[in-house]
């Protein structure tokens, strides 16, 4: 990512919430192909014979791998077996980041029914869960930043200032109304916009990255693309690499057609890679190797 690039957009990428503002994004270059590729990849997991018999095991493993990947993007790149064996996640900043990602993954599954009717409540709850036992000031947990409050652990920070509290409040409200209004856009498009807006806004003092990725998961599951949560996009985001992740987010934040399209396509590729990971788990279970 260009060090001189400013990932903070000067206006919301989400259009005015009248009508169906996300639908036109599905027509951006490359997005329709990405939607089809994602659907084929996710369908490949669901058609697997092991998935049909042992879907709870696949979902549990996908959740663990997704949480590990989200923590890695936040700077805690632990081996999967380390995440699997550890029980203490409060000892140091990296352990707390892994613990936050694990808690968020569990919370995402509990938020599916609330998200369509109260998305901002869900975001507040996600932050509360992520920050549990963390270093954020208690009064800053579970709510967006207030005037004068800075982002304390900016996972995407390259020196560019986060939007101020007034812009955060206005754009969160706009995003909430878009979710409440519903959309004909594919779940990939909606999930990418939710993730991208939260990444650009950095609405909380801490844990913005992990919350954004958990919200993406909620949309993908609740939107019907991946109802059993077996195609963890977080795995794909980590596999594609942090530089590519940051560059794609900067494109979204630019608000240009190409930038927004590129981010949606990037999210699609991440989901495909998450699906591929779960197919590999299915194959290992079939061989009796996992």
Automatic annotation (TrEMBL):
InterPro entries recorded: Fido (IPR003812), Fido-like_dom_sf (IPR036597)
Annotated spans, Disordered: 1-21
Gene3D superfamilies referenced in this protein's UniProt entry, alphabetically: Fido-like domain
UniProt domain Fido: residue ranges: 118-266
Protein name per the record: Oxidoreductase
């Amino acid at each position: 990512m260009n060090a001189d690039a400013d990932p903070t957009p000067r206006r919301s990428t989400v259009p005015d919430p009248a009508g169906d503002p996300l639908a036109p994004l599905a027509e951006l270059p490359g997005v329709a192909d990405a939607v089809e590729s994602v659907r084929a990849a996710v369908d490949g997991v669901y058609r697997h014979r092991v998935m049909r018999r042992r879907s709870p095991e696949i979902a549990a493993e996908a959740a663990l791998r997704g949480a590990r990947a989200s923590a890695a993007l936040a700077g805690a790149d632990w081996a999967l077996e380390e995440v699997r064996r550890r029980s203490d996640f409060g000892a140091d900043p990296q352990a707390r980041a892994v613990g936050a990602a694990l808690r968020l993954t569990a919370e995402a599954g509990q938020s599916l029914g609330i998200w369509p009717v109260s998305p901002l409540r869900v975001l507040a709850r996600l932050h509360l869960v992520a920050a549990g036992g963390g270093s954020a000031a208690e009064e800053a947990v579970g709510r967006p930043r207030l005037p004068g409050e800075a982002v304390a652990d900016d996972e995407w920070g390259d020196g560019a200032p986060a939007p101020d509290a007034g812009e955060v409040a206005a754009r969160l409200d706009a995003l909430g109304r878009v979710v409440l209004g519903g959309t004909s856009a594919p779940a990939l498009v909606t999930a990418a916009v939710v993730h991208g807006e939260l990444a650009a806004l950095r609405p909380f003092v801490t844990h913005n990255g992990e919350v954004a990725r958990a919200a993406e998961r909620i949309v993908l599951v609740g939107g019907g693309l991946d109802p059993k949560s077996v195609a963890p996009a977080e795995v794909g985001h980590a596999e594609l690499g942090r530089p590519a992740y940051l560059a794609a987010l900067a494109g979204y934040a630019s608000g240009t057609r190409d930038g927004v399209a590129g981010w949606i396509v990037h999210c699609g590729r991440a989901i495909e890679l998450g699906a591929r990971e779960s197919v590999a788990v299915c194959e290992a279970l079939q061989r009796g190797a996992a």
